[in-house]
Write a structure and sequence with these properties.
alpha+beta
Amino acid sequence: MNKYITVIDFEVGKVFQYEHLQHLQYGWNDDEANEQEVIEWYLTEVKGHNLSTCEWMEHEDNTIYKV
């Protein structure tokens, strides 16, 4: 099953959703101990988020609920 990362970026006032990228150097599913570190590296270095102004979570359901 695919996993997703949803980021609430308060600095830009937007919500972003990314699929896990299996091709990263250590993979997000290869080494559970390094998974958070790799995700945070990806969010800051690749996607440009500032973690001090963001909240993120990992999940399997990519449904976005609007109420």
